[in-house]
Design a protein that fits this description.
Layout: E1 4-6, H1 18-24, E2 30-34, H2 41-49, E3 56-60, H3 68-83, H4 104-122, E4 134-139, H5 150-160, E5 165-171, H6 180-184, E6 188-191, H7 193-196, H8 200-206, H9 220-230, H10 234-246, H11 262-271, H12 275-284, E7 290-291, H13 292-298, H14 304-313, E8 318-322, E9 329-332, H15 334-347, H16 350-366, H17 370-380, H18 383-399, H19 403-411, H20 415-418, H21 422-432, H22 438-454, H23 457-473, H24 478-494, H25 502-520, H26 523-539, H27 543-559, H28 563-577, H29 583-599, H30 603-620, H31 626-633
Parallel strand pairs: 2-5, 2-6, 3-4, 4-5
Antiparallel strand pairs: 1-3, 7-9, 8-9
Helix pairs in contact: 3-4, 3-5, 4-5, 9-10, 10-11, 12-15, 16-17, 17-18, 18-19, 18-21, 19-21, 21-22, 21-23, 22-23, 23-24, 23-25, 24-25, 25-26, 25-27, 26-27, 27-28, 27-29, 27-31, 28-29, 29-30, 30-31
Length: 634
């Protein structure tokens, strides 16, 4: 289920904590806040940042963001929103490169760092001594898979982001990041469980809110007893406060009220709620976030916004993360959500849980949130529905760099589905890209054979495109590459004049261009194919295909020695990408500038450009650019 990216969470009423504010006000690049569940990590940081007039991106993580491609999209879109680049409800989407050996983690970190640097440049500090101009908060880090690729992306951002970007890392546990180097440099501040625990004065203030007469006044002995039982654990204080609404007797308060005792004590409060409200709470525990627009479709006869707002006002482990005027979004505290989910499993039969997951999946599907729909269908065991979504959305996931997650979904399906469906074979193979080597050729041919039996033209076009690419990257003989090129040209000729399968035709023309330029050596035909791809990409307004085809076309100009056309193409590429964020662009830009430097007799500059181009080609595995590099080096 997709993690949520937003601004600072909305806080309705909160107890300010100046002693911790003073610590966070120090000029450390990284603030690590760790503590047990319901210990006020999110509330503390949100309250602190709400006092600062600085752009802030707050990312609420869950397991889906363990894939660095998912995390990249969340961060990129959030940064673009902060830059003001999105238009009227349309999400900003990063252009993606589908070429090279898929070292996209390095690429993604560079793109994000460039976006951060832009924000830092356009957002000056608000005072003479201000040292930070952008805050990035990663909340619920403990939900990420420790073996997932997201932590490598976070490590790269911590290492290379501008010094004026400040990171807040919020987690129940210490995240598997390389933090020791920052501690040694005094760039890391840690706020732990004991720091977060309420002091006696904070506990007294918590139970003496100025505008709430529903909690009876407590004596100093009562405060001492509560503090002794909870050890300042904020979740425990909330539970005691809620319990006192029904009666002022503290006689039933256990001697130790820790997070381990949460289920026992919260059950007393939970059981005092109406059966209808308990059922609502249980069923909402299924959802990754409490989006009232979605929940209003799931609970057709209930004012979900009013219910959640009331729970938030009572501090019942619900917080508002988006204050949309009509459809606000809430989140449960993870500990409370786990409690509710456990109760749901005990209260419902497996068949009932399947029905709930199916219903939720259908609603997300209708709302075009296919990623979340798949997660619900996985929980329901609805494999046919998952396969159907993958057939529809697989190409988008591939080109947007989400191949690892796509592959995980396909692997979750029974082999009798994943090994016999040509679309699933195609997508799982394409997701592996260069890693599959010669095995990819065999798998693509298997999928192609199945598509041909089914007369599935779109599948045939895409299979041929990936076969050409795979043959180029594993350096198959030019005769083999030409065979697949000719097969592709035959298919395209049969579709001439027809407005069908435009995306697939564009992809095939692009790869035919790559095959001719980087694999077969017929540069004029490659340039012609790329121009066809560019025309089609513009027609369907697809920046990804336009960018990729333009890069291959530029390579064709370089290899033919037409550096003037290459320079013109690079200028157009700069307009497409917005910034020089892509290593392919930089490498080709340096290669063309080498020619101009040599014509001016500037050998030193030519040498520097050659080194820069070689560094990008080596670092990002841009093997398809080697011919152009060799041409420039000669």
């Amino acid at each position: 289920m997709t993690a949520a990216s937003s601004h600072i969470p909305h806080l309705d009423a909160v107890l300010h904590r100046p002693r911790l504010f003073q610590r966070m006000a120090q000029s450390c690049r990284i603030v690590l806040v760790t503590g047990q569940a319901a210990q006020g990590k999110t509330t503390l940081v949100a309250d602190f940042l709400s006092t600062q007039d600085l752009p802030t991106q707050w990312v609420h993580l869950n397991r889906a963001a363990s894939d660095h491609g998912v995390l990249f999209d969340l961060l990129y879109r959030g940064l673009e929103r902060l830059k003001g680049r999105h238009v009227s409800g349309r999400e900003p989407n990063p252009p993606h490169i589908t070429l090279g050996s898929r070292k996209d983690l390095l690429r993604y970190s560079e793109i994000l760092i460039t976006a951060m640097a832009h924000l830092v440049r356009v957002t000056p500090p608000h005072s003479d001594d201000a040292s930070h101009t952008l805050n990035l908060v990663l909340d619920d880090l403990e939900t990420l898979d420790p073996e997932g690729s997201a932590f490598a992306l976070i490590d790269a951002l911590l290492k290379d982001a501008p010094d004026t970007v400040r990171f807040f890392l919020l987690s129940r546990t210490t995240p598997p990041l390389s933090l020791s180097r920052y501690r040694m440099k005094k760039q890391l501040m840690t706020i732990g469980n004991q720091d977060l625990a309420f002091t006696r004065q904070e506990t007294l203030d918590f139970f003496s809110p100025p505008d709430d007469d529903t909690v009876p006044p407590l004596s100093t002995n009562d405060i001492d007893k509560i503090l002794c039982a909870t050890e300042g654990w904020i979740g425990g204080l909330v539970l005691v406060s809620e319990s006192l609404r029904t009666g002022p007797d503290l006689g039933d308060l256990p001697d130790q009220l820790s997070s381990d005792a949460f289920s026992y004590f919260s059950d007393e409060i939970y059981r005092s709620l109406s059966p209808d409200l308990r059922q609502f709470l249980m069923e909402t525990s299924l959802f990754p976030e409490l989006d009232t627009r979605i929940l209003s479709q799931f609970f057709e006869n209930k004012d979900v916004c009013d219910v959640l707002t009331q729970l938030e006002r009572r501090n019942l482990f619900v917080s508002k993360v988006s204050a949309h005027p009509q459809w606000p979004v809430f989140r449960y505290n993870n500990l409370f959500k786990e409690f509710l989910a456990s109760d749901l499993k005990m209260a419902m039969a497996p068949s009932q849980l399947v029905e709930l997951n199916l219903k939720a999946g259908e609603i997300y599907w209708e709302n075009r949130d296919h990623d979340t729909a798949i997660e619900f269908f996985l929980a329901a065991g609805a494999h046919d529905k998952i396969a159907q979504i993958i057939r529809i959305k697989g190409t988008d996931d591939l080109i947007s760099g989400r191949g690892e997650r796509l592959l995980a979904w396909i692997r979750a399906l029974p082999s009798q589905i994943s090994d016999t469906d040509p679309w699933l074979i195609l997508f799982s193979t394409a997701a592996r890209r260069i890693k599959g080597g010669k095995a990819n050729i065999k798998a693509f041919r298997q999928a192609l054979d199945l598509f041909q039996r089914q007369s599935d033209v779109r599948g045939i076009l895409l299979c041929l495109a990936y076969l050409i690419e795979a043959a180029v990257f594993i350096r198959q003989p030019s005769t083999v590459i030409l065979k697949w090129i000719k097969a592709g040209e035959t298919q395209l000729a049969a579709l001439k004049g027809k407005q069908r399968y435009t995306w697939a035709r564009t992809m095939l023309w692009q790869q035919i261009g790559l095959g001719y330029i980087a694999g077969n050596g017929d540069i004029p035909k490659g340039i012609s194919a790329c121009r066809n791809a560019i025309l089609l990409a513009r027609g369907i307004d697809n920046p990804d295909l336009l960018l990729n085809a333009s890069i291959i076309l530029t390579l064709g100009f370089v290899q033919s020695g037409d550096f003037t056309s290459a320079r013109d193409m690079l200028d157009k590429l700069s307009e497409v990408t917005g910034e020089e964020r892509f290593p392919e662009y930089r490498a080709l830009n340096n290669i063309t500038n080498i020619d101009f430097a040599l014509k001016r007799g500037d050998l030193d500059l030519a040498g520097q450009l050659l080194e820069s181009a070689e560094a990008d080609i080596e670092k990002f595995g841009l093997i398809f650019l080697y011919p152009g590099f060799v041409e420039a080096k000669a």
